[in-house]
């Protein structure tokens, strides 16, 4: 009778424990599912509030912007207009700066990706004298601040005649983007199985063909991540552009800053210009976000 009671007590205790666990599991499932999803959506909406506010401000007249906030359009949608964008297209300084921004950002990104990939492959899989010491030198360049190099490189560019040109801005961005590119891609390429590369060499593939046909496809996520980082850095840069560009080669960031300084009330041009300057990097990031996440996770998961 005593054993029976003990067994019943154990059964009851196990049942209560199972009930408690099932309740906790249900709570964990609710938090990990619906509640967490709602929380992330709310955080994402808060993150997008400045972008949405800038977009709605760029679609309002200057008089409406000075009279009330951008949220007024939800009660008075008649305030929305595209006149500001028409004025933007008529502003030669802004349109020229947008073209200059593309001329600076695209070559600076492509050169860093291509040269960084070639150098990363060489440091990872090619044997040459002093390879490790050269790589340590590249890693050491990562700690050099941009501000330290502004004046010496400006003097150098002035002597060779490219100071104030688009080429000068591009070369500066390429020079400071390469150390990180080489470091990132070398570490990624080094994780490629050696057997795969040796099999390709046995099939008669040379180094260039091996790089193009084997290494580049496998390194796609890391290359995409590097391209996004470099594009965002160059597109949003203003410090380097302020130093190395002139009125004919300034990007959109410098042009907008000049408009604020010279025409403080020129909000009908500043708002759409700032929105275009913001939305292009966002579009690039969202277009390649899958590759970006794959590249970030590649170093953590084997």
Protein described:
This protein is mainly alpha-helical. Helix content is 79%, strand content 0%. It is built from 14 helices and no strands. The chain is globular. The N and C termini lie far apart (58 Å).
Characteristics:
mainly alpha, globular, 302 residues
SSE layout and pairings?
Elements: H1 2-58, H2 62-67, H3 83-90, H4 92-125, H5 131-140, H6 146-160, H7 166-189, H8 194-202, H9 207-218, H10 220-236, H11 239-244, H12 252-262, H13 267-287, H14 289-298
Helix pairs in contact: 1-13, 3-13, 4-7, 4-10, 4-12, 5-7, 7-10, 10-13, 10-14, 12-13
**Regions with little confidence, pLDDT below 50 for 5+ residues:** 14-20
What distance separates the N and C termini? 58 Å
What kind of sheet is the major sheet?
none
Helix content: over 70%
| Global geometry | globular
Oligomeric state of the chains present here: single chain
**Radius of gyration, taken over Cα atoms and rounded to an integer in Å:** 28 Å
Percent strand equals: under 5%
- Give the total of beta strands: 0
Given helix and strand content, the structural type is mainly alpha
Mean pLDDT: 80
Encode the helix/strand succession as letters.
HHHHHHHHHHHHHH
Q: What is the overall number of helices? A: 14
């Amino acid at each position: 009778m005593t054993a029976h009671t003990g067994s019943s007590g154990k059964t009851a205790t196990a049942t209560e424990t199972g009930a408690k666990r099932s309740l906790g599991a249900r709570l964990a499932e609710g938090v990990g599912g619906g509640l967490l999803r709602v929380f992330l959506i709310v955080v994402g909406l808060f993150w997008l509030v400045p972008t949405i506010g800038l977009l709605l401000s760029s679609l309002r007249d200057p008089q409406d912007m000075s009279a009330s906030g951008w949220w007024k359009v939800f009660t008075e949608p008649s305030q929305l207009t595209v006149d500001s964008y028409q004025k933007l297209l008529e502003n030669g300084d802004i349109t020229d700066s947008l073209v200059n921004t593309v001329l600076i950002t695209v070559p600076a990104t492509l050169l860093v990706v291509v040269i960084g990939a070639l150098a990363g492959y060489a440091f990872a899989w090619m044997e040459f004298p002093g390879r490790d010491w050269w790589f340590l030198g590249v890693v050491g360049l990562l700690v050099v601040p941009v501000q330290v190099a502004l004046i010496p490189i400006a003097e150098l560019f002035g002597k060779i005649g490219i100071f104030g040109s688009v080429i000068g801005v591009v070369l500066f961005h390429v020079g400071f983007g390469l150390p990180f590119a080489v470091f990132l891609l070398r570490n990624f390429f080094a994780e490629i199985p050696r057997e795969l590369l040796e099999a390709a060499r046995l099939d008669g593939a040379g180094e260039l063909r091996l790089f193009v046909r084997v290494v580049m496809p496998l390194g796609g996520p890391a290359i995409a991540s590097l391209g996004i980082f470099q594009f965002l850095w160059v597109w949003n840069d203003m410090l380097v552009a302020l130093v190395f560009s002139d009125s004919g080669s300034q990007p959109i960031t410098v042009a907008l800053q000049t408009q604020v300084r010279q025409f403080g009330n020129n909000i009908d041009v500043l708002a759409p210009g700032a929105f275009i300057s913001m939305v292009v990097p966002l579009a690039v990031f969202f277009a390649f976000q899958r590759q970006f996440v794959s590249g970030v996770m590649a170093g953590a998961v084997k």
